[in-house]
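[agent] plan:
  1. take the single chain provided in the ticket
  2. run structure prediction with default settings
  3. attach structure tokens to the ticket
  4. add a short note for the reviewer (M.T.)
[agent] executing step 1
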Amino acid sequence: MERKNRVNGELDIDTLKKLSKDDPKNVEHLKTLSEMLMKEGNYDEAANYWESFLKLNPNSDSYQSLGNCYYELEEYDKAKEALLSGLKLKPDDASIFNDLGIISMAKGVWRKL
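[agent] step 2 finished; step 3 output follows
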């Protein structure tokens, strides 16, 4: 069944949604689905799948992806919370610090150094 629902060798979004519903603990399907939804600009739905993924497999990169979804949705407090969760797991991740700075700028929070 899966072979018919592939695009460029990857499962399509509808198939991944069905597979994720049938097996909600399959982190591979959840991650791939989250990434594909982000690529399509469907940040709200992607955030929901990232949340499910992170309950099973918390890691800094995925928290950063969740933060980026919330940033795109202009939910800056949720974006900051996700990024700070990622920073707890990888305290020296410069890209997370960069994203936190971008969120501060978007919120209009400026500090003199």
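[agent] step 4 note for reviewer: The helical segments are 13-22, 27-39, 43-56, 60-72, 76-89, 94-107.
[agent] ticket updated
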